[in-house]
Amino acid sequence: MTATRALPPDATASAVEAAIRWMVRLQSGDATPHDHQACQRWQQEQPENAQAWAAIDAFSQQLKALPRALVHTTLARPPRPRRRMVLKSVMLLGGAGGLGLASTQGGWHALAADYRTGVGERRRVALPDGSVLHLNTATALDVHADAHERCVNVRAGEVLVECAPDGRMPSPLPLRVQTAESQVRASSGRFIVRQFAGRTSVHALTGGLDVHPRAPAGSGLTHLRVEPGQQWLFDAQGAGLASPADESAAAWTDGVIVARSMRLSTLTAELARYHRGWLRCDQAVAEWRVSGVFPVDDIGRVVAALQRTLPVRARAVTPWWVTLGPR
Fold first, then answer.
1. Residue 97 CA: distances (Å) to CA of 93, 110, 185, 200, 304
2. Nearest in space to 102 (alpha carbons), one of 111, 293, 117
3. One domain, residues 231 and 145
4. 215, part of any domain
C-alpha cells in the first residue's frame, strides 16, 4: 500500500533534498521574489527537479487544505500540566523505580547535559572551534573542548555534526563524538550520530569517519572506516550492518521526514519521536508502504493526511495515545 501522494520513482534523492530546501526557504517568511524566481529556474533545469517539486508541493498543499478541526481531533497535543501536577508526576515517577524519564535514553543523567532538546524540539549549537551541532528531538549531549581535545558525548538522541577542521599545526585535533557503544572521529565534514537502545548509527554525509566500537579486549576489532555516502548501525561489539547512506537522513534539520516506499510502522515510529505522547502502528497495516514528505512540527496534520490518503484510521484512547490501524 502506497500513499497517493508518492514521490515519483525517477526523482533522484538529490533532487528531493533540493526540493525540500527550496520549500523550507520559500515558506520561511523571509523569501524574496528573487528566491521564487530562482526556484522556478531550478525546476526548469532538469525534469527530475520539476517532478520532485511537484510531489512535495502537492503534499504540502494537501496538508494546508486539511480542516483545523479534523487535525485537532485526530491527534491533539497534550495540555501543558500545571506546576503542582508536574511535581506530583515527578514524585510518582521516582516512587515507581524511575519509570518515565528514567526509562528513556540517557535516563535522569540526560537532564544534566550541557545541551538538550525536548520532545518535538530541534536546536542548533555553534561551537567555538567553528563546528556546528544540530540536535534532533529528545537529544542530550555534553561538549568538552580545550587545548588537548575536542569531544562531544551523546547521552541520548541524534545529532548532525558539521565538523570544522582544527587549525592547530602540525597536529590538528580530530573531533570525537562518543556514544554508549562507540567513539567516532572526524577531521572535517558532515555526519550524523544517533544513539539507540544498545546500538549506535553513524551516517557519513561528507568526509570519512573512523568509528571505534567499545569492543572487549581481545576481540580483534579496533575500528572501521566509514566513507562518505555510507552508514553503519552496530552494537558495542561492532556487530552490525554497513550499507549505503540514506541521502534524506538529514532532512529532519529542515523539519521533514522523507519517506521512499517506507513501511508504515517505520514512518509511525519516526513521527512518534516528535509527539508528546504515544503514537504506534497496528500490525495489520505495519507493512504498508508510504512515500512522501512529512513535516515533523505538525504531527496531527500528518496523521490526518495519512487517513485521507490511505485506508487507515487513527484510534485515540486519549488525544495523545493514538494507534494507526485498518479503517
1. 7, 17, 36, 26, 37
2. 111
3. yes
4. yes
Q: Do 200 and 310 share a domain, yes or no?
A: no
Helices (H), the chain: 13-26, 33-45, 47-65, 68-74, 83-95, 264-272, 299-309
Q: Quick one: cell of 280?
A: 504506534
In the chain, the amino acid numbered 150 is R
Q: Is residue 64 part of a domain?
A: yes
Cβ count within 10 A of residue 241: 9
The pLDDT tens digits of the residues spanning 170-189 come to 778 999 999 999 999 999 99
Q: How many domains does the chain have?
A: 2
Rounded to whole angstroms, how far apart are CA atoms 213 and 235? 8
CATH number, domain with residue 152: 2.60.120.1440
Q: Rounded distance, CA 188 to CA 163, Å? A: 5
What are 114-173's pLDDT values in tens digits? Answer: 999 999 999 999 999 999 999 999 999 999 988 888 999 999 999 999 999 987 767 789
- 175: phi then psi, degrees, rounded to nearest 5: -90, 125
Separation between Cα atoms, residue 250 and residue 238, nearest integer Å: 24
Instruction: Output the CA torsion sign for 177, 182, 185, 189.
Output: negative
pLDDT digits (tens, 9 = 90+) for 24-58: 778 766 789 999 999 999 999 999 999 888 877 77
Residues 61 and 144 in one domain: no
Residues recorded for the chain: 327
Query: By the 8 A CB rule, do 71 and 304 touch?
Result: yes
Q: Domain range spanning residue 28?
A: 13-76+255-326
Tell me, what DSSP letter sits at residue 234?
Answer: E
Kindly state whether residues 233 and 315 are assigned to the same domain. no
Question: For cell 506546576, what's the residue?
Answer: 83
Q: How far apart are CA 238 and CA 92, in angstroms?
A: 38
